[in-house]
Design a protein that fits this description.
TPR repeats lie at residues 128-161. By secondary structure, the protein is an all-alpha fold. It is 76% helix and 0% strand. The protein is globular, with a radius of gyration of 31 Å.
C-alpha cells in the first residue's frame, strides 16, 4: 500500500479532457482540501472532500485515483475498483493498472486481474511489480505452475526481490513443502525483519501447522508495525478465536470495522463471534449483506448454514451446508449440522442415512453417536436406539455417559427409587430429552403437555418441563417448576442438581455454593459432590480454590481417574503444562490396574506438549484393548505429531487391514504418502475405498489430485464418479471444484443439468438459484426461486430473495412474496425492509414507511435500510426527518451500497 505522501504525489499526474458543464475550479479546491486533510492525517475528511471534488467534476481523474487508493488503504475494495476503473479507462498507466489489480485481488476476482495488467512497465521495478501481481493472481486461480513462472521471472531481474521470494514460499506451502517455505520466509526476515508480508506468511505457515503460539507471535510483531492494518488484525483475530480468546478477537475485528465498516472479512468474523456468543439474529444481520460476496468462500458457506440453522431457515441452511460439504466432504461438525437440520425438518430417515456413515468413519465422535441414537428413537427403531445408548453409557465422556444411562433407564427397566411410568411414557420422555438436545423446544413442550394430561402431578414430568424452559433460557419459569417438583418429592437428587444449574444461570451463586458445600459436608467421601463443588468454583473463575479443593480430594482418592481428568481440564485451561504432565504421569501409573486411565494420560501428555509419551501410553493401552479403533487412530496421530511417521504407518495399515472401509485410517495414510511426495501411493489408497464407499473414494481421489496441483484430473475424476454414481454429494462436489478453479460456466451448466434430472433436489436447486443471484442473472434466479418457494412455502429467506428478484425484474409477484416472507418472519428487519421498500416503490407509502421504520429500528447499523427509510420519508414530504438521516449517513464516512443515491437525495433536498 502506498504511503500518504505517495498518494498526495498523484496530484500532478493528470492532464484530461474536462466536460463543459463541470465546475473544475470548485473541484480543484475540494481536491486541494482533500490533500491537505490527508497531509494532516485525517483520511476520513479527505475522502469526503475528494467525493465533493468528483461530484463537481466527474472527469477529475487525480481525485478519483487518490480516492481509490484511500479506499484500498481502508479495505473497501468495491469502491476502490469503481474509482480506479474510471481512471484506468480514461488514462491507463502502470500505477493505476497495479492499483486496480489490487482492488480485484482483494475481492478474490483473480481471473479479472489479467485483463488489467499489461506485460511490461515503464521501469524494471514496475515490470517486477506486475510479474509479482500476476503470480499472486495465478495462485488465486489455482494455476500454481504459472504463478511459479511469474515469480521466478521477477527474480531473474531482481534476485533479492522479497515479494517474489515470498510468492515462491507460498507455493512451497501449498505443495506441502513446509520446511522449504519456512526457510524462505526466514531468509527474508533475516535481512528484512520488519517485512510485513513475510511476517504474515510466517503466521500462516505456523497456523497451518497448528502452532498457534508461533502464529500469534508473528502477528503481534506485524501489529507493532501496522497496528490498524486489517491484513494483520483479521488473521490475529482468527488465531485468537481458534485458541478461545474471543474477547481479544472481538477487539481486533472491532478495530477493523471502526475504520472500514464494509470490510467483508471483518464482518464475516464479527458474525462468527456473534454466533459463538449465541446471538444468531445479530449474526444474521451482520452476515446477510456480505453473503453474496463470500459465495465462493467455503468457511462462509459453513457460517451461513449455521446462522440459517439457528434462525430456523432450514431449507437454506441445508443448501449452504451441502455447498460447504462439496468442498470439505469430511468436515465432521458440518455433517452433524446437516443431520440436525434434517431432524428439525422431520426428515428422520435422511438424518439416519447422514449419521450412519459419519459414525462409521469417526467412531470416536460421541456427538454423532448420540444424534444417531436419538434418530433411531424417533424412528421407533428401539433395538438400534438401545444398542447405541448402551455404547454411549460406556463412554469416557462423563456427561455423555450420564445422559445415555438416564435414557437407558427410561427405555429399559424402571428405576426403583422413582415413580414408575409405563414403557410408552418412558419412550416419550426419552424423546423429549432428544428434542431438547437438538433445540426442538416446541416439540418438547408439546410432548410433555400430552404426558401431563394423564399424570399432572408427576415430579419427573414437572422437572422435565423445567429442563425445557431452562434450555430455552426462561430461568424464572424453570426454577418455579423445579421448586414445585421438589415439593412433591424432596428426595430426588436430579431436582437439586437442576436447581443448582438454574440458580447459577440466574446469578444466584451464593445459593448454589451453599447447596454444594452442604452436600460435601454431609458426605466428605462423596466423590461426585466434591467434583460438583470444584467445577462450580472453576466455572466462576475461582481457579485457585477449585485447584485446592480438587487436589485435596485427589490425594484422598489415589486411584480416581475422574478426579484427575477434571484436574487435567483445569490445568489445560490455565495452560499449566508441568501440572498437566504430572497428572498424566499419575494416570499412567493408575493405568497399570485400570487401562482406561491410559487414554486420559495420553490426552494430557499431548496437551502438555509431549506427543511421544502420549503415543507410548496408547501403545500400552492398545495391548490391553486391541479392538479399540479410536485409540489406534489416536496412537497414529500422536506418532505423526511426534515426528515418527514411519511408526504411524503400520498402525494405520493395521486399522485398514481390520476395516478396509475406514476413511479415517485411509486419510491418515494419504497424508503420510503426500508428505513423502508419493502421489501415486496416495491415489492408490483413495481408490482402495471405491468398493466400500465409492463417494468417499471419489472425493478423496479428487482431493489428492488437487493437493498435487492436478486440477484437470481432479475435475475429470469427479465427473467420472458422478457418471458412475448419481449422487447429490458428488454433483455439488463437482460444482465446487469447477467453481473454485475458474470454471464457473461449467459449474453452473453442470448443476443445471443435475437439477433438470433431479427436479426434487431442493438443496441443489437452492445452490443453483443462489449462484444465479450472485452473478446477477436475475431471470434464471427467478425461475429457480419460483420452484423453491413452492417446495418450501414457509421459508422466509427464500420468499424474501424471491421478492427482491421479482421486484428488480418488475414482476407483480414481488409484493405477494414479500408479504408472505414478512408473515413468516415478522421480526426480521431485512425482510421488513424488503416489503417496505417494495410498497414505497409501488406508491403505497404509508404502510411502507411504517415497515421501514420498524426495519431501521431493528437494524440501526444497516445504512442501506436507513437510506430506504429516508427515501420513503422524503416521498411522504417529511423532508427534515429524511435530511437528518441522510446527513448522518454522509458525515460518518461509512461506505454502503446506496451511498451515491443517498448523496443525490440529500443534494435534492438541499436544493
Amino acid at each position: 500500500m502506498l504511503a500518504a505522501s505517495s498518494l498526495i504525489a498523484l496530484a500532478t499526474c493528470f492532464t484530461v479532457f474536462t466536460p463543459a458543464h463541470a465546475d473544475t475550479q470548485q473541484s480543484q479546491r475540494f481536491y486541494d482540501e482533500g490533500v491537505q486533510q490527508l497531509q494532516s492525517g485525517n483520511a476520513s475528511a479527505a475522502v469526503i472532500q475528494l467525493r465533493n471534488a468528483i461530484q463537481q467534476d466527474p472527469a477529475n481523474l487525480k481525485a478519483r485515483q487518490l480516492l481509490g487508493q484511500l479506499y484500498l488503504r481502508t479495505g473497501d475494495a468495491v469502491s476502490a475498483e469503481k474509482e480506479l476503473r474510471r481512471v484506468f479507462e480514461a488514462q491507463r498507466g502502470d500505477e493505476v493498472e497495479l492499483q486496480l489489480a489490487q482492488a480485484l485481488m482483494m475481492q478474490r476476482r483473480y481471473g479479472d486481474v489479467f485483463a488489467v495488467l499489461s506485460p511490461q512497465g515503464a521501469t524494471p521495478e514496475l515490470t517486477q511489480a506486475k510479474l509479482v501481481m500476476s503470480g499472486q493472481a495465478y495462485m488465486g486461480t489455482g494455476q500454481i505452475d504459472d504463478a511459479e513462472s511469474q515469480f521466478r521471472a521477477a527474480l531473474e531481474t531482481a534476485p533479492n526481490l522479497a515479494e517474489a521470494k515470498l510468492g515462491l514460499a507460498r507455493i512451497d506451502a501449498l505443495r506441502n513443502r513446509t520446511d522449504e517455505a519456512r526457510r524462505s520466509v526466514d531468509e527474508v526476515l533475516a535481512t528484512s525483519p520488519d517485512n510485513l508480508e513475510a511476517l504474515l506468511l510466517s503466521a500462516d505457515i505456523a497456523f497451518a501447522g497448528q502452532r498457534a503460539d508461533d502464529a500469534l507471535a508473528s502477528l503481534n510483531r506485524a501489529a507493532a508495525l501496522s497496528p490498524d492494518n486489517p491484513r494483520v488484525l483479521l488473521p490475529r483475530a482468527r488465531v485468537r478465536l481458534q485458541t478461545g480468546s474471543i474477547n481479544e478477537a472481538e477487539k481486533d475485528v472491532s478495530r477493523v470495522l471502526e475504520r472500514t465498516p464494509r470490510d467483508v472479512m471483518a464482518r464475516y468474523m464479527k458474525a462468527s463471534i456473534q454466533l459463538i456468543r449465541g446471538d444468531a439474529n445479530a449474526a444474521r444481520t451482520t452476515f446477510q449483506p456480505i453473503e453474496g460476496a463470500l459465495a465462493d468462500y467455503p468457511p462462509a458457506l459453513l457460517l451461513g448454514g449455521l446462522i440459517k440453522f439457528n434462525t430456523g431457515q432450514y431449507a437454506q441452511a441445508e443448501a449452504s451446508i451441502n455447498r460447504f460439504l462439496a468442498s470439505a466432504p469430511d468436515h465432521v461438525p458440518a455433517r452433524r449440522t446437516l443431520a440436525a437440520i434434517q431432524l428439525r425438518s422431520n426428515n428422520t430417515l435422511s438424518a439416519i442415512e447422514a449419521l450412519k456413515p459419519l459414525v462409521a468413519d469417526h467412531p470416536d465422535d460421541l456427538i454423532a453417536r448420540q444424534m444417531l441414537a436419538g434418530a433411531y428413537l424417533r424412528q421407533g427403531d428401539m433395538g438400534n436406539a438401545t444398542a447405541m445408548f448402551e455404547e454411549l453409557a460406556k463412554s469416557p465422556n462423563r456427561p455423555m455417559a450420564a445422559r445415555a444411562k438416564s435414557t437407558l433407564g427410561l427405555l429399559q427397566a424402571s428405576d426403583a427409587g422413582s415413580r414408575d411410568m409405563p414403557p410408552e411414557t418412558r419412550r416419550s420422555v426419552a424423546l423429549v430429552l432428544d428434542y431438547i438436545r437438538n433445540g426442538e423446544f416446541a416439540k418438547a413442550h408439546e410432548t410433555v403437555d400430552q404426558l401431563k394430561t394423564a399424570d399432572a402431578d408427576n415430579p419427573q414430568l414437572i422437572s422435565l418441563e423445567a429442563a425445557i424452559f431452562a434450555a430455552e433460557g426462561d430461568m424464572g419459569t424453570a426454577k418455579s417448576r423445579l421448586q414445585a417438583a421438589s415439593a412433591l418429592d424432596p428426595s430426588m437428587s436430579e431436582i437439586a442438581n437442576n436447581l443448582n444449574l438454574v440458580d447459577a444461570r440466574m446469578g444466584n451463586l451464593d445459593a448454589v455454593e451453599k447447596r454444594l458445600r452442604d452436600a460435601v459436608s454431609a458426605n466428605p467421601g462423596d466423590e461426585q459432590a466434591v467434583l460438583r463443588l470444584g467445577q462450580f468454583l472453576a466455572q466462576n473463575q475461582r481457579l485457585n480454590e477449585a485447584e485446592d479443593t480438587l487436589e485435596s480430594a485427589a490425594s484422598r482418592h489415589p486411584n480416581s481417574i475422574t478426579m484427575r481428568r477434571i484436574l487435567g481440564e483445569l490445568y489445560e485451561r490455565r495452560d499449566d503444562k508441568p501440572k498437566l504432565l504430572e497428572t498424566a504421569g499419575q494416570l499412567r501409573q493408575i493405568g497399570n490396574a485400570q487401562p482406561e486411565a491410559l487414554k486420559f494420560a495420553a490426552v494430557m501428555y499431548r496437551a502438555g506438549g509431549d506427543p511421544a509419551r502420549a503415543a507410548d501410553a496408547l501403545r500400552v493401552y492398545a495391548k490391553a484393548k486391541p479392538d479399540d479403533a479410536e485409540a489406534q487412530i489416536a496412537l497414529a496421530q500422536n506418532l505423526i505429531a511426534a515426528n515418527r511417521p514411519e511408526e504411524a504407518r503400520p498402525v494405520l495399515e493395521a486399522i485398514k487391514a481390520k476395516d478396509p472401509a475406514s476413511a479415517v485410517a485411509t486419510l491418515g495414510l494419504v497424508d503420510l504418502a503426500l508428505a513423502r511426495n508419493d502421489a501415486d501411493g496416495a491415489l492408490k489408497l483413495a481408490d482402495g475405498l471405491r468398493q466400500a464407499n465409492p463417494i468417499a473414494a471419489a472425493q478423496l481421489r479428487s482431493s489428492v489430485l488437487l493437493r498435487t496441483n492436478r486440477v484437470d484430473e481432479a475435475i475429470r475424476a469427479m465427473e467420472q464418479a458422478l457418471q458412475a454414481t448419481s449422487d447429490r454429494q458428488l454433483a455439488l462436489g463437482l460444482y465446487g471444484l469447477r467453481r473454485d478453479n475458474g470454471r464457473m460456466d461449467q459449474a453452473v451448466s453442470g448443476l443445471e443439468d443435475w437439477v433438470k434430472r433431479n427436479p426434487d433436489d431442493v438443496a441443489a436447486r437452492t445452490v443453483l438459484a443462489d449462484t444465479y443471484l450472485t452473478r446477477q442473472d436475475l431471470k434464471q434466479a427467478e425461475a429457480h426461486y419460483d420452484i423453491l418457494v413452492q417446495a418450501r412455502p414457509g421459508d422466509p429467506a427464500l420468499l424474501n430473495n424471491a421478492a427482491w428478484i421479482a421486484h428488480e425484474l418488475g414482476s407483480p409477484q414481488a409484493l405477494q412474496y414479500a408479504r408472505r416472507a414478512h408473515a413468516a418472519a415478522p421480526s426480521a428487519p431485512e425482510i421488513a425492509d424488503t416489503l417496505g421498500w417494495i410498497l414505497v416503490q409501488s406508491g403505497e407509502t404509508a404502510e411502507g414507511v411504517e415497515l421501514l421504520r420498524s426495519a431501521a429500528a431493528g437494524a440501526p447499523s444497516n445504512q442501506d435500510v436507513q437510506y430506504h427509510l429516508a427515501y420513503a420519508l422524503h416521498a411522504t414530504g417529511a423532508k427534515d426527518e429524511a435530511r437528518e438521516i441522510l446527513e448522518k449517513l454522509g458525515t460518518d464516512g461509512k461506505p454502503f451500497e446506496s451511498r451515491e443515491e443517498a448523496a443525490e437525495l440529500l443534494a435534492t433536498i438541499g436544493r
